[in-house]
Fold this protein.
Amino acid sequence: MAIIRARGLGKSFRVADKQPGLGGTLRHFFARRLKDIPAVRDVSFTIESGEVVGFLGANGAGKTTTLKMLTGLIEPSAGEVEVAGFRPFRRQAAFLRTITLVMGQKQQLIWDLPPLDSLRVNAAVYGIGDADARRRIDELAEMLELGEELRRPVRKLSLGQRMKAELLAALLHRPSVLFLDEPTLGLDVNAQVRVREFLADYNRRTGATVLLTSHYMGDITALCQRVLLIHQGQLFYDGSLQELTQQLAPYREVCCDLGAVYPPEAFRGFGELESVAGHRVRLLVSRDQLTGTISRLLSTFPVLDLEVNDPPVEEIIGRLFREGAVA
Amino acid sequence: MSRTLRLARVLLSVQYAYMLEYRAEIALWALSGLLPLIMLALWSGADAAADLSLSPAELTRYFLAAFVVRQFTVVWVIHIFEEDALQGRLSPYLLQPLHPFWRYLAAHIAEQATRVPFVLAIVLAVWLFGAGASGWPPPSTWLLGLLVTHLAFLLRFLLQSVITMACFWSERAAALDRLLLIPYLFLSGLVAPLEAFPPGLRRLAAATPFPSMVDFPARLLSGGEVDLLGGLATLAAWMALLLPLYLMLWRAGLRRYAAMGA
Protein backbone atom coordinates (compact mmCIF):
# COMPACT_ATOMS: atom_id res chain seq x y z
CA MET A 1 0.00 0.00 0.00
CA ALA A 2 1.41 3.39 -0.98
CA ILE A 3 2.01 5.56 2.08
CA ILE A 4 3.63 8.50 0.24
CA ARG A 5 2.30 9.81 -3.05
CA ALA A 6 3.67 12.85 -4.87
CA ARG A 7 2.17 13.90 -8.19
CA GLY A 8 3.54 16.74 -10.27
CA LEU A 9 5.10 18.25 -7.14
CA GLY A 10 6.74 21.63 -7.64
CA LYS A 11 8.11 24.46 -5.53
CA SER A 12 9.40 27.88 -6.55
CA PHE A 13 11.00 30.40 -4.23
CA ARG A 14 10.80 34.15 -4.81
CA VAL A 15 14.25 35.63 -4.30
CA ALA A 16 15.75 39.09 -4.63
CA ASP A 17 17.63 39.68 -7.88
CA LYS A 18 20.46 42.05 -6.95
CA GLN A 19 23.40 43.06 -9.08
CA PRO A 20 26.80 43.33 -7.37
CA GLY A 21 28.49 46.67 -6.60
CA LEU A 22 27.31 50.00 -5.23
CA GLY A 23 25.07 50.73 -8.23
CA GLY A 24 23.36 47.39 -7.88
CA THR A 25 22.95 47.95 -4.14
CA LEU A 26 21.34 51.39 -4.64
CA ARG A 27 19.07 50.14 -7.44
CA HIS A 28 18.10 47.22 -5.22
CA PHE A 29 17.35 49.58 -2.32
CA PHE A 30 15.00 51.81 -4.31
CA ALA A 31 13.48 49.31 -6.74
CA ARG A 32 13.69 45.77 -5.44
CA ARG A 33 13.52 43.17 -8.19
CA LEU A 34 12.37 39.67 -7.40
CA LYS A 35 12.43 36.53 -9.45
CA ASP A 36 11.01 33.05 -9.03
CA ILE A 37 13.53 30.27 -8.79
CA PRO A 38 12.14 26.77 -9.32
CA ALA A 39 13.61 24.42 -6.72
CA VAL A 40 11.52 21.34 -7.54
CA ARG A 41 9.71 20.68 -10.82
CA ASP A 42 7.06 18.11 -11.65
CA VAL A 43 8.25 15.40 -9.28
CA SER A 44 6.07 12.28 -9.06
CA PHE A 45 6.62 9.06 -7.13
CA THR A 46 4.99 6.72 -4.67
CA ILE A 47 6.56 4.93 -1.73
CA GLU A 48 5.09 1.77 -0.27
CA SER A 49 4.62 1.23 3.43
CA GLY A 50 7.77 -0.19 5.05
CA GLU A 51 10.11 0.77 2.18
CA VAL A 52 13.48 2.38 2.83
CA VAL A 53 14.17 4.74 -0.05
CA GLY A 54 17.30 6.77 -0.68
CA PHE A 55 16.96 10.25 -2.09
CA LEU A 56 20.07 11.17 -4.03
CA GLY A 57 21.23 14.34 -5.68
CA ALA A 58 23.90 16.99 -5.60
CA ASN A 59 23.71 20.05 -3.32
CA GLY A 60 20.78 22.25 -4.37
CA ALA A 61 19.20 19.47 -6.42
CA GLY A 62 15.89 19.80 -4.54
CA LYS A 63 16.10 16.92 -2.06
CA THR A 64 15.57 18.94 1.11
CA THR A 65 12.86 21.10 -0.49
CA THR A 66 10.99 17.92 -1.43
CA LEU A 67 11.35 16.59 2.11
CA LYS A 68 10.01 19.88 3.47
CA MET A 69 6.94 19.55 1.25
CA LEU A 70 6.42 15.94 2.28
CA THR A 71 6.55 16.85 5.97
CA GLY A 72 4.29 19.88 5.55
CA LEU A 73 6.89 22.46 6.50
CA ILE A 74 6.38 24.32 3.25
CA GLU A 75 3.44 24.51 0.89
CA PRO A 76 3.96 23.14 -2.63
CA SER A 77 3.64 25.66 -5.45
CA ALA A 78 2.29 22.95 -7.75
CA GLY A 79 1.10 19.36 -7.69
CA GLU A 80 -0.26 17.16 -4.96
CA VAL A 81 1.25 15.29 -2.07
CA GLU A 82 -0.25 12.80 0.34
CA VAL A 83 1.50 11.14 3.26
CA ALA A 84 -0.27 8.42 5.30
CA GLY A 85 -3.56 9.67 3.90
CA PHE A 86 -2.97 13.28 4.98
CA ARG A 87 -2.24 16.49 3.09
CA PRO A 88 1.00 17.41 4.88
CA PHE A 89 0.68 21.21 4.75
CA ARG A 90 -2.53 21.07 6.79
CA ARG A 91 -0.33 19.75 9.60
CA GLN A 92 -3.17 18.04 11.42
CA ALA A 93 -2.16 16.66 14.83
CA ALA A 94 -2.85 13.07 13.67
CA PHE A 95 -0.47 13.58 10.75
CA LEU A 96 2.25 15.08 12.94
CA ARG A 97 2.01 12.07 15.26
CA THR A 98 2.63 9.81 12.25
CA ILE A 99 5.81 11.38 10.92
CA THR A 100 9.18 12.63 12.03
CA LEU A 101 11.90 14.65 10.34
CA VAL A 102 15.52 14.37 11.39
CA MET A 103 17.87 16.98 10.02
CA GLY A 104 21.50 16.08 10.48
CA GLN A 105 22.64 19.67 10.60
CA LYS A 106 19.84 20.93 12.86
CA GLN A 107 18.75 19.95 16.31
CA GLN A 108 15.60 19.92 18.33
CA LEU A 109 17.29 19.12 21.65
CA ILE A 110 17.66 22.00 24.11
CA TRP A 111 21.35 22.90 23.92
CA ASP A 112 22.03 23.70 27.57
CA LEU A 113 20.03 20.89 29.15
CA PRO A 114 20.48 17.10 29.15
CA PRO A 115 18.60 15.25 26.38
CA LEU A 116 16.31 13.73 29.04
CA ASP A 117 14.72 17.17 29.55
CA SER A 118 13.93 17.49 25.85
CA LEU A 119 12.59 13.94 25.90
CA ARG A 120 10.27 14.84 28.80
CA VAL A 121 8.92 17.74 26.74
CA ASN A 122 8.44 15.52 23.69
CA ALA A 123 6.66 12.88 25.75
CA ALA A 124 4.28 15.50 27.14
CA VAL A 125 3.70 17.08 23.71
CA TYR A 126 2.80 13.70 22.19
CA GLY A 127 0.71 12.70 25.22
CA ILE A 128 2.93 9.76 26.18
CA GLY A 129 2.50 8.81 29.86
CA ASP A 130 5.50 8.90 32.21
CA ALA A 131 5.84 5.11 32.56
CA ASP A 132 5.38 4.53 28.84
CA ALA A 133 7.87 7.29 28.02
CA ARG A 134 10.46 5.74 30.35
CA ARG A 135 9.96 2.34 28.72
CA ARG A 136 10.34 3.82 25.22
CA ILE A 137 13.40 5.84 26.19
CA ASP A 138 15.05 2.75 27.70
CA GLU A 139 14.28 0.67 24.61
CA LEU A 140 15.56 3.25 22.13
CA ALA A 141 18.56 4.14 24.32
CA GLU A 142 19.54 0.47 24.33
CA MET A 143 19.24 0.24 20.54
CA LEU A 144 21.28 3.44 20.19
CA GLU A 145 23.78 2.50 22.90
CA LEU A 146 23.02 5.61 24.91
CA GLY A 147 23.25 5.67 28.69
CA GLU A 148 24.73 8.38 30.90
CA GLU A 149 24.91 10.67 27.87
CA LEU A 150 21.19 11.34 28.29
CA ARG A 151 21.94 13.04 31.61
CA ARG A 152 24.70 15.31 30.30
CA PRO A 153 24.00 18.76 28.78
CA VAL A 154 23.63 18.45 25.00
CA ARG A 155 26.47 20.93 24.49
CA LYS A 156 28.85 18.50 26.24
CA LEU A 157 28.05 15.58 23.93
CA SER A 158 30.08 14.53 20.92
CA LEU A 159 28.52 14.95 17.48
CA GLY A 160 27.78 11.22 17.28
CA GLN A 161 26.19 11.10 20.75
CA ARG A 162 24.15 14.19 19.90
CA MET A 163 22.89 12.66 16.67
CA LYS A 164 21.88 9.49 18.45
CA ALA A 165 20.04 11.54 21.10
CA GLU A 166 18.34 13.50 18.28
CA LEU A 167 17.19 10.22 16.74
CA LEU A 168 15.85 9.10 20.11
CA ALA A 169 13.91 12.36 20.48
CA ALA A 170 12.57 12.10 16.94
CA LEU A 171 11.39 8.53 17.39
CA LEU A 172 9.93 8.69 20.89
CA HIS A 173 6.38 8.99 19.54
CA ARG A 174 6.92 5.91 17.32
CA PRO A 175 6.34 7.55 13.95
CA SER A 176 5.53 5.25 11.05
CA VAL A 177 7.05 7.55 8.41
CA LEU A 178 10.64 8.80 8.88
CA PHE A 179 12.12 11.58 6.82
CA LEU A 180 15.86 11.70 7.40
CA ASP A 181 17.86 14.55 5.92
CA GLU A 182 21.58 13.80 6.13
CA PRO A 183 21.30 11.87 9.41
CA THR A 184 25.01 10.98 9.46
CA LEU A 185 26.38 14.35 8.37
CA GLY A 186 29.72 15.08 10.02
CA LEU A 187 29.85 11.79 11.95
CA ASP A 188 32.98 9.66 12.00
CA VAL A 189 32.92 6.29 10.25
CA ASN A 190 32.10 4.30 13.41
CA ALA A 191 29.25 6.59 14.37
CA GLN A 192 27.91 6.44 10.80
CA VAL A 193 27.86 2.65 10.94
CA ARG A 194 26.07 2.64 14.30
CA VAL A 195 23.39 5.07 13.09
CA ARG A 196 22.87 2.97 9.94
CA GLU A 197 22.56 -0.22 11.96
CA PHE A 198 20.06 1.45 14.24
CA LEU A 199 17.92 2.69 11.35
CA ALA A 200 17.93 -0.75 9.70
CA ASP A 201 16.97 -2.31 13.04
CA TYR A 202 14.21 0.24 13.63
CA ASN A 203 12.80 -0.41 10.16
CA ARG A 204 12.86 -4.20 10.76
CA ARG A 205 11.22 -3.95 14.18
CA THR A 206 8.52 -1.40 13.39
CA GLY A 207 7.99 -1.68 9.64
CA ALA A 208 8.36 2.11 9.41
CA THR A 209 8.74 3.76 6.03
CA VAL A 210 11.99 5.68 5.61
CA LEU A 211 12.95 8.32 3.06
CA LEU A 212 16.59 9.20 3.49
CA THR A 213 18.86 11.79 1.91
CA SER A 214 22.59 11.50 2.36
CA HIS A 215 25.85 12.56 0.85
CA TYR A 216 27.39 9.36 2.18
CA MET A 217 26.71 6.60 -0.25
CA GLY A 218 27.45 4.14 2.54
CA ASP A 219 24.11 5.19 4.11
CA ILE A 220 22.28 4.54 0.86
CA THR A 221 23.96 1.25 0.00
CA ALA A 222 23.56 -0.06 3.56
CA LEU A 223 19.90 0.86 3.96
CA CYS A 224 18.12 1.34 0.65
CA GLN A 225 17.11 -1.06 -2.04
CA ARG A 226 15.43 1.72 -3.98
CA VAL A 227 16.69 5.18 -4.84
CA LEU A 228 15.22 8.37 -6.23
CA LEU A 229 17.74 10.46 -8.09
CA ILE A 230 16.95 14.16 -8.38
CA HIS A 231 18.87 16.70 -10.41
CA GLN A 232 18.10 20.39 -10.88
CA GLY A 233 14.72 19.89 -9.25
CA GLN A 234 13.60 17.06 -11.51
CA LEU A 235 13.34 13.36 -10.82
CA PHE A 236 15.86 11.61 -13.02
CA TYR A 237 15.74 8.03 -11.79
CA ASP A 238 13.41 5.92 -9.66
CA GLY A 239 14.38 2.28 -9.21
CA SER A 240 16.69 -0.15 -7.54
CA LEU A 241 20.18 0.89 -6.53
CA GLN A 242 21.64 -2.21 -8.18
CA GLU A 243 19.93 -1.43 -11.48
CA LEU A 244 21.19 2.14 -11.29
CA THR A 245 24.78 1.02 -10.91
CA GLN A 246 24.40 -1.61 -13.66
CA GLN A 247 22.65 0.67 -16.13
CA LEU A 248 24.70 3.73 -15.55
CA ALA A 249 28.05 2.19 -14.76
CA PRO A 250 28.80 -0.51 -17.32
CA TYR A 251 32.37 -0.67 -16.07
CA ARG A 252 34.31 -1.87 -13.06
CA GLU A 253 37.15 -0.41 -11.10
CA VAL A 254 40.51 -2.22 -11.33
CA CYS A 255 43.13 -1.30 -8.71
CA CYS A 256 46.69 -2.63 -9.15
CA ASP A 257 49.78 -2.44 -6.97
CA LEU A 258 52.77 -2.62 -9.32
CA GLY A 259 56.38 -3.59 -8.73
CA ALA A 260 57.60 -0.37 -10.41
CA VAL A 261 56.44 3.19 -11.12
CA TYR A 262 55.12 3.87 -14.63
CA PRO A 263 54.08 7.12 -16.35
CA PRO A 264 50.34 7.58 -17.09
CA GLU A 265 50.96 7.05 -20.84
CA ALA A 266 51.94 3.44 -20.12
CA PHE A 267 48.32 2.59 -19.30
CA ARG A 268 46.89 3.75 -22.64
CA GLY A 269 44.64 1.02 -24.01
CA PHE A 270 43.87 -0.44 -20.55
CA GLY A 271 40.58 1.34 -20.05
CA GLU A 272 40.11 4.77 -18.51
CA LEU A 273 42.90 5.84 -16.16
CA GLU A 274 41.43 7.16 -12.92
CA SER A 275 44.65 7.80 -10.99
CA VAL A 276 48.30 6.89 -10.64
CA ALA A 277 49.83 7.30 -7.19
CA GLY A 278 53.32 5.84 -7.05
CA HIS A 279 52.98 2.11 -7.41
CA ARG A 280 49.15 2.16 -7.21
CA VAL A 281 47.01 2.53 -10.32
CA ARG A 282 43.23 2.81 -10.61
CA LEU A 283 41.54 2.06 -13.92
CA LEU A 284 37.90 1.98 -15.04
CA VAL A 285 37.40 -0.94 -17.40
CA SER A 286 34.33 -1.77 -19.46
CA ARG A 287 32.61 -4.91 -18.09
CA ASP A 288 32.76 -6.69 -21.48
CA GLN A 289 36.51 -6.12 -21.77
CA LEU A 290 37.32 -6.87 -18.14
CA THR A 291 38.83 -10.36 -18.53
CA GLY A 292 40.96 -9.44 -21.54
CA THR A 293 42.21 -6.24 -19.94
CA ILE A 294 43.20 -8.01 -16.72
CA SER A 295 45.14 -10.67 -18.70
CA ARG A 296 47.02 -7.95 -20.61
CA LEU A 297 47.75 -6.04 -17.39
CA LEU A 298 49.19 -9.18 -15.77
CA SER A 299 51.33 -9.94 -18.80
CA THR A 300 52.54 -6.33 -19.35
CA PHE A 301 53.28 -5.09 -15.80
CA PRO A 302 54.81 -6.66 -12.67
CA VAL A 303 51.48 -6.83 -10.79
CA LEU A 304 51.89 -7.45 -7.05
CA ASP A 305 48.21 -7.16 -6.15
CA LEU A 306 44.99 -6.66 -8.06
CA GLU A 307 41.41 -5.83 -6.95
CA VAL A 308 38.24 -5.54 -9.03
CA ASN A 309 35.37 -3.49 -7.49
CA ASP A 310 32.18 -1.74 -8.44
CA PRO A 311 33.02 1.95 -8.52
CA PRO A 312 31.59 4.00 -5.59
CA VAL A 313 28.04 5.13 -6.32
CA GLU A 314 28.87 8.78 -5.63
CA GLU A 315 31.45 8.50 -8.38
CA ILE A 316 28.87 7.11 -10.80
CA ILE A 317 26.46 9.92 -10.01
CA GLY A 318 29.21 12.51 -10.17
CA ARG A 319 30.25 11.23 -13.61
CA LEU A 320 26.67 11.27 -14.82
CA PHE A 321 26.20 14.90 -13.92
CA ARG A 322 29.67 15.88 -15.20
CA GLU A 323 29.06 14.19 -18.51
CA GLY A 324 25.69 15.89 -18.84
CA ALA A 325 23.85 12.59 -19.09
CA VAL A 326 20.98 14.05 -17.12
CA ALA A 327 20.73 17.38 -18.88
CA MET B 1 -7.45 18.23 31.07
CA SER B 2 -4.83 16.30 33.04
CA ARG B 3 -2.82 15.91 29.82
CA THR B 4 -2.89 19.68 29.28
CA LEU B 5 -1.86 20.29 32.90
CA ARG B 6 0.99 17.77 32.58
CA LEU B 7 2.15 19.43 29.37
CA ALA B 8 2.05 22.86 31.07
CA ARG B 9 3.94 21.51 34.09
CA VAL B 10 6.64 19.84 31.99
CA LEU B 11 7.05 22.82 29.65
CA LEU B 12 7.32 25.25 32.54
CA SER B 13 9.71 23.11 34.60
CA VAL B 14 12.02 22.43 31.64
CA GLN B 15 11.95 26.06 30.55
CA TYR B 16 12.66 27.12 34.13
CA ALA B 17 15.67 24.78 34.22
CA TYR B 18 16.81 26.27 30.90
CA MET B 19 16.41 29.84 32.16
CA LEU B 20 18.36 29.08 35.32
CA GLU B 21 21.34 28.30 33.10
CA TYR B 22 21.30 32.05 32.34
CA ARG B 23 20.78 33.37 35.90
CA ALA B 24 23.55 35.98 35.66
CA GLU B 25 22.03 37.34 32.46
CA ILE B 26 18.59 37.44 34.08
CA ALA B 27 19.98 39.42 37.02
CA LEU B 28 21.31 41.98 34.54
CA TRP B 29 17.97 42.11 32.72
CA ALA B 30 16.22 42.69 36.03
CA LEU B 31 18.61 45.53 36.82
CA SER B 32 18.14 46.99 33.35
CA GLY B 33 14.43 47.39 34.10
CA LEU B 34 15.05 50.01 36.76
CA LEU B 35 13.57 52.86 34.70
CA PRO B 36 10.53 53.36 36.98
CA LEU B 37 12.85 53.69 39.98
CA ILE B 38 15.01 56.20 38.11
CA MET B 39 11.86 58.13 37.25
CA LEU B 40 10.92 57.98 40.94
CA ALA B 41 14.25 59.56 41.86
CA LEU B 42 13.78 62.28 39.21
CA TRP B 43 10.25 63.20 40.21
CA SER B 44 11.07 63.13 43.93
CA GLY B 45 14.24 65.18 43.59
CA ALA B 46 12.65 68.01 41.66
CA ASP B 47 9.74 68.62 44.00
CA ALA B 48 7.68 67.62 41.08
CA ALA B 49 5.44 65.30 43.03
CA ALA B 50 3.19 68.22 43.66
CA ASP B 51 2.90 68.82 39.90
CA LEU B 52 1.72 65.25 39.55
CA SER B 53 -0.92 65.84 42.20
CA LEU B 54 0.50 62.95 44.20
CA SER B 55 1.91 62.81 47.70
CA PRO B 56 5.53 61.60 48.00
CA ALA B 57 4.24 58.30 49.46
CA GLU B 58 1.80 57.81 46.58
CA LEU B 59 4.55 58.62 44.10
CA THR B 60 6.91 56.06 45.67
CA ARG B 61 4.21 53.40 45.74
CA TYR B 62 3.27 54.06 42.12
CA PHE B 63 6.80 53.81 40.73
CA LEU B 64 7.66 50.80 42.87
CA ALA B 65 4.50 49.10 41.58
CA ALA B 66 5.40 50.17 38.01
CA PHE B 67 8.80 48.55 38.53
CA VAL B 68 7.16 45.27 39.60
CA VAL B 69 4.74 45.43 36.66
CA ARG B 70 7.56 46.15 34.24
CA GLN B 71 9.55 43.17 35.55
CA PHE B 72 6.67 40.78 34.96
CA THR B 73 5.59 42.13 31.60
CA VAL B 74 8.90 41.92 29.76
CA VAL B 75 8.31 40.30 26.37
CA TRP B 76 11.01 39.17 23.93
CA VAL B 77 9.11 36.72 21.75
CA ILE B 78 9.90 38.66 18.56
CA HIS B 79 13.64 38.29 19.09
CA ILE B 80 13.61 34.58 19.82
CA PHE B 81 11.08 33.84 17.07
CA GLU B 82 13.12 35.78 14.52
CA GLU B 83 16.24 33.86 15.50
CA ASP B 84 14.41 30.52 15.46
CA ALA B 85 12.95 31.25 12.02
CA LEU B 86 16.32 32.30 10.60
CA GLN B 87 18.31 29.46 12.19
CA GLY B 88 15.78 26.77 11.25
CA ARG B 89 14.84 25.95 14.85
CA LEU B 90 11.21 26.80 14.14
CA SER B 91 10.87 23.82 11.80
CA PRO B 92 11.02 21.08 14.46
CA TYR B 93 8.46 23.03 16.52
CA LEU B 94 6.13 23.18 13.53
CA LEU B 95 6.35 19.42 13.13
CA GLN B 96 5.08 18.70 16.63
CA PRO B 97 1.41 18.72 17.63
CA LEU B 98 1.78 21.82 19.81
CA HIS B 99 1.43 25.38 18.54
CA PRO B 100 4.83 27.13 18.99
CA PHE B 101 2.94 30.01 20.71
CA TRP B 102 2.68 27.86 23.85
CA ARG B 103 6.41 27.10 23.92
CA TYR B 104 7.28 30.79 23.75
CA LEU B 105 4.65 31.66 26.35
CA ALA B 106 6.05 28.98 28.69
CA ALA B 107 9.58 30.35 28.17
CA HIS B 108 8.41 33.83 29.21
CA ILE B 109 6.60 32.60 32.31
CA ALA B 110 9.65 30.54 33.30
CA GLU B 111 11.86 33.58 32.83
CA GLN B 112 9.54 35.61 35.06
CA ALA B 113 9.90 32.98 37.78
CA THR B 114 13.67 33.34 37.68
CA ARG B 115 13.32 37.11 38.17
CA VAL B 116 11.36 36.79 41.42
CA PRO B 117 14.37 36.82 43.82
CA PHE B 118 15.91 39.87 42.13
CA VAL B 119 12.61 41.74 42.09
CA LEU B 120 11.94 40.92 45.74
CA ALA B 121 15.42 42.09 46.73
CA ILE B 122 15.03 45.40 44.91
CA VAL B 123 11.50 45.99 46.21
CA LEU B 124 12.71 45.26 49.74
CA ALA B 125 15.64 47.64 49.35
CA VAL B 126 13.41 50.47 48.12
CA TRP B 127 10.91 49.66 50.84
CA LEU B 128 13.53 49.86 53.56
CA PHE B 129 15.38 52.89 52.32
CA GLY B 130 12.73 54.71 50.33
CA ALA B 131 10.99 57.55 52.10
CA GLY B 132 7.22 57.38 52.17
CA ALA B 133 6.81 53.75 51.27
CA SER B 134 4.73 53.18 54.33
CA GLY B 135 1.07 52.43 54.24
CA TRP B 136 0.98 49.66 51.67
CA PRO B 137 -2.37 48.43 50.39
CA PRO B 138 -3.75 45.17 51.86
CA PRO B 139 -2.66 41.74 50.52
CA SER B 140 -5.96 41.28 48.67
CA THR B 141 -5.14 44.37 46.57
CA TRP B 142 -1.65 42.99 45.95
CA LEU B 143 -3.02 39.65 44.81
CA LEU B 144 -5.50 41.31 42.49
CA GLY B 145 -2.73 43.60 41.25
CA LEU B 146 -0.48 40.65 40.47
CA LEU B 147 -3.31 38.90 38.63
CA VAL B 148 -3.93 42.01 36.54
CA THR B 149 -0.17 42.33 35.99
CA HIS B 150 -0.20 38.89 34.39
CA LEU B 151 -3.17 39.83 32.24
CA ALA B 152 -1.16 42.89 31.19
CA PHE B 153 1.72 40.55 30.36
CA LEU B 154 -0.60 38.43 28.22
CA LEU B 155 -1.75 41.54 26.35
CA ARG B 156 1.84 42.62 25.74
CA PHE B 157 2.79 39.10 24.67
CA LEU B 158 -0.13 39.00 22.27
CA LEU B 159 0.68 42.44 20.82
CA GLN B 160 4.31 41.48 20.24
CA SER B 161 3.24 38.11 18.82
CA VAL B 162 1.16 39.96 16.23
CA ILE B 163 4.20 42.06 15.26
CA THR B 164 6.32 38.91 15.32
CA MET B 165 4.31 37.56 12.41
CA ALA B 166 6.18 40.08 10.25
CA CYS B 167 9.09 37.62 10.53
CA PHE B 168 7.35 35.59 7.84
CA TRP B 169 7.64 38.56 5.47
CA SER B 170 10.89 40.12 6.60
CA GLU B 171 14.12 38.68 7.93
CA ARG B 172 14.59 41.60 10.31
CA ALA B 173 11.16 42.09 11.80
CA ALA B 174 12.48 42.68 15.31
CA ALA B 175 13.23 46.26 14.24
CA LEU B 176 9.45 46.87 14.16
CA ASP B 177 9.26 46.21 17.87
CA ARG B 178 11.76 49.00 18.51
CA LEU B 179 9.35 51.37 16.78
CA LEU B 180 6.80 50.61 19.46
CA LEU B 181 9.25 51.20 22.31
CA ILE B 182 8.86 55.00 22.42
CA PRO B 183 5.04 55.07 22.49
CA TYR B 184 5.15 52.19 24.99
CA LEU B 185 7.50 54.09 27.30
CA PHE B 186 5.54 57.34 27.20
CA LEU B 187 1.95 56.18 26.94
CA SER B 188 2.08 53.21 29.31
CA GLY B 189 2.78 55.18 32.47
CA LEU B 190 6.38 54.10 32.92
CA VAL B 191 7.79 57.64 32.94
CA ALA B 192 4.91 59.20 34.88
CA PRO B 193 1.44 58.22 36.08
CA LEU B 194 -1.04 58.85 33.28
CA GLU B 195 -3.32 60.89 35.56
CA ALA B 196 -0.56 63.50 35.61
CA PHE B 197 -0.67 63.84 31.80
CA PRO B 198 -2.47 66.73 30.04
CA PRO B 199 -6.04 65.72 29.07
CA GLY B 200 -5.25 65.54 25.32
CA LEU B 201 -2.31 63.21 25.85
CA ARG B 202 -4.33 61.15 28.28
CA ARG B 203 -7.06 60.70 25.65
CA LEU B 204 -4.42 59.69 23.10
CA ALA B 205 -2.92 57.14 25.51
CA ALA B 206 -6.36 55.76 26.31
CA ALA B 207 -6.85 54.95 22.62
CA THR B 208 -3.84 52.62 22.74
CA PRO B 209 -3.29 49.34 24.60
CA PHE B 210 -0.26 50.76 26.45
CA PRO B 211 -1.96 52.10 29.63
CA SER B 212 -3.38 48.61 30.22
CA MET B 213 0.18 47.29 30.23
CA VAL B 214 1.61 49.44 33.07
CA ASP B 215 -0.58 52.26 34.35
CA PHE B 216 -3.65 50.17 35.17
CA PRO B 217 -1.90 47.30 36.98
CA ALA B 218 0.57 49.67 38.68
CA ARG B 219 -2.17 51.89 40.07
CA LEU B 220 -4.03 48.81 41.24
CA LEU B 221 -0.91 47.39 42.92
CA SER B 222 -0.09 50.69 44.60
CA GLY B 223 -3.57 51.03 46.05
CA GLY B 224 -4.53 53.97 43.87
CA GLU B 225 -8.00 54.70 42.61
CA VAL B 226 -8.89 52.60 39.56
CA ASP B 227 -11.92 51.68 37.56
CA LEU B 228 -11.38 47.92 37.98
CA LEU B 229 -14.18 46.71 35.73
CA GLY B 230 -13.43 49.33 33.07
CA GLY B 231 -9.72 48.41 33.13
CA LEU B 232 -10.42 44.69 32.87
CA ALA B 233 -12.90 45.29 30.05
CA THR B 234 -10.28 47.33 28.16
CA LEU B 235 -7.72 44.55 28.61
CA ALA B 236 -10.20 41.94 27.40
CA ALA B 237 -11.23 44.07 24.43
CA TRP B 238 -7.64 44.49 23.25
CA MET B 239 -6.98 40.77 23.63
CA ALA B 240 -10.19 39.94 21.77
CA LEU B 241 -8.96 42.17 18.93
CA LEU B 242 -5.39 40.89 18.84
CA LEU B 243 -5.98 37.14 19.16
CA PRO B 244 -7.90 36.65 15.89
CA LEU B 245 -5.48 39.02 14.18
CA TYR B 246 -2.57 36.90 15.40
CA LEU B 247 -4.19 33.66 14.23
CA MET B 248 -4.98 35.14 10.82
CA LEU B 249 -1.41 36.40 10.35
CA TRP B 250 -0.01 33.07 11.57
CA ARG B 251 -1.93 31.14 8.93
CA ALA B 252 -0.97 33.61 6.20
CA GLY B 253 2.65 33.64 7.35
CA LEU B 254 2.99 29.87 7.31
CA ARG B 255 2.12 29.89 3.60
CA ARG B 256 5.18 32.07 3.07
CA TYR B 257 7.46 30.12 5.39
CA ALA B 258 10.43 28.77 3.48
CA ALA B 259 11.94 26.79 6.39
CA MET B 260 15.24 28.57 5.85
CA GLY B 261 18.25 27.10 7.55
CA ALA B 262 16.46 23.79 7.93
